[in-house]
């Protein structure tokens, strides 16, 4: 019953992997409707060729991106990046030597050494974001695509496919590479550094992981897994989903009818559905407030302490930047300054501003505000650079009294800031920016009474 909408072409004889051989638009005659996840506008997907994408006509958010042979491509990339990860965790990562004392570390030691210094939370954050979550993601992709390529989805495919999209923002292998480069430049003048096989394997892994997540064609994948159920009867394009009491699924894109209580699950992927994320503004405010509080200890306390020949010098985030400037390595200082100061502070201000002005957003303003929201969502994870720098340096620089680095309390506080601001961006519902009626009250003047009345009715 699931594939009763599939057009079977008599001239085309396709061997078993029928499920994945043709994109959805060549197998369906009816229009496929989508509600934009960022502005709630309902539109019909056009037929797409490989390499093409369909953008929302109202806010330009990408609704669907079509790839050629998506299952084969992401299967190949996922296998390759899993192999690279296995190599990266099995060999030495990097070694250093100073005055005859040397130390060689493996990738996992960047997390385990932190536990020895009573920083288990930072250690968990490091190992989860650079290895555990990416590994789970890759195994999930391989499991899914293997089923699709065989023409018979594997068990739990639906739950795995739904979970994959939630993992993506928390995979930070690419940020770790930047952290590793910053750490190496930081100590290059003080000691001799040599890169191990694992370092290069990890670079390959980070690149392949990025390619794998980009290669997933979620639209095609969900179509192959569960078919394309009809949108609720009477759903129209050219207006918002909320106005029709329907909503677009954030994971698989299908439009679902919302019951009176506003709580539902997607009929195709079983994701939770909401007209608007519940208590979006309150939750975002609470998370922003918590992040602001955590940003104080993150800057007041030292992020790491360097002990050299018996004298210890603790350094804060800003102190580290100043130190780098004095050493003359201003590009690294700029990276740390942007990642640890500009990005988190900018994000706190940007999200607060979006929350404050959300009810005063017209159609034109909504467009620029949505762009700002996308930017804050995109850059958030790059703040983790400094936490990774601490993890790498603490593990690597172990030469007893000659030179050693220990983590400071600011590492945990700063890690919390990054996580809290990322969560704040996730709980903010950009559709709220588009909800204000575009009709604005006229300027105060001759029709003063009218203005006030209109304003009240708009705000209320
Ligand atoms: Zn849109
Ligand atoms: Zn869904």
From TrEMBL:
It is a multi-pass membrane protein. It is found in: Cell inner membrane. The keyword Membrane applies. The chain crosses the membrane at residues 75-101, 121-146, 167-185, 191-210, 285-304, 332-357, 378-397, 409-428. It holds the Pfam family PqiA. Keywords: Cell inner membrane, Cell membrane, Membrane, Transmembrane, Transmembrane helix. Belongs to the PqiA family. NCBIfam families: pqiA_fam (TIGR00155). This is Paraquat-inducible protein A. It comes from Vreelandella malpeensis.
């Amino acid at each position: 019953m699931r594939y009763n909408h599939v057009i079977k072409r008599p001239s085309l004889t396709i061997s078993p992997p029928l499920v994945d051989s043709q994109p959805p638009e060549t197998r369906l005659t009816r229009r496929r409707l989508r509600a934009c996840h960022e502005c709630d506008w309902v539109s019909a997907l056009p037929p797409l060729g490989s390499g093409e994408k369909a953008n929302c006509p109202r806010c330009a958010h990408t609704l669907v991106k079509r790839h050629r042979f998506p299952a084969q491509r992401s299967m190949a990339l996922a296998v390759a990046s899993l192999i690279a990860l296995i190599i990266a965790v099995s060999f030495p990562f990097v070694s250093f030597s100073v005055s005859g004392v040397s130390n060689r570390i493996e990738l996992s030691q960047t997390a385990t050494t932190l536990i020895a210094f009573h920083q288990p939370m930072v250690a968990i954050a490091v190992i989860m974001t650079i290895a555990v979550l990416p590994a789970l993601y890759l195994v999930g992709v391989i499991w899914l695509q293997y089923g699709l390529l065989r023409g018979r989805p594997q068990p739990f495919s639906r739950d795995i496919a739904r979970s994959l999209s939630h993992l993506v923002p928390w995979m930070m292998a690419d940020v770790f590479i930047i952290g590793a480069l910053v750490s190496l430049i930081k100590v290059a003048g003080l000691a001799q550094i040599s890169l191990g096989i694992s370092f290069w394997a990890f670079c390959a892994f980070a690149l392949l992981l990025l390619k794998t997540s980009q290669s997933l064609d979620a639209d095609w994948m969900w179509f192959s897994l569960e078919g394309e159920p009809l949108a609720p009867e009477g759903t129209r394009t050219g207006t918002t989903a909320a106005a029709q009491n329907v909503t677009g699924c954030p994971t698989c894109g299908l439009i679902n009818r919302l019951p009176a209580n506003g709580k539902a699950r997607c009929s195709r992927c079983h994701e939770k559905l909401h007209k608007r994320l519940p208590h979006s503004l309150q939750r975002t405010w609470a998370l922003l407030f918590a992040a602001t509080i955590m940003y104080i200890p993150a800057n007041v306390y030292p992020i790491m302490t360097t002990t050299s020949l018996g004298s210890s010098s603790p350094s804060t985030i800003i102190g580290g930047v100043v130190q780098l400037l004095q050493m003359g390595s201003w590009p690294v200082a700029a990276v740390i300054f942007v990642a640890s100061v500009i990005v988190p502070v900018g994000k706190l201000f940007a999200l607060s501003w979006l929350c404050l002005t959300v009810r005063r957003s017209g159609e034109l303003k909504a467009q620029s505000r949505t762009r700002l929201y996308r930017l804050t969502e995109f850059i958030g994870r790059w703040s983790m650079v400094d936490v990774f720098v601490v993890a790498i340096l603490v593990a690597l620089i172990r030469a007893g009294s000659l030179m050693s680095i220990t983590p400071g309390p600011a590492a945990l506080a700063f890690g919390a800031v990054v996580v809290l601001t990322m969560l704040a961006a996730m709980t903010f519902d950009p559709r709220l920016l588009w909800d204000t009626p575009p009709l604005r009250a006229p300027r105060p003047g001759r029709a003063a009474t009218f203005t006030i009345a209109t304003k009240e009715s708009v705000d209320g």
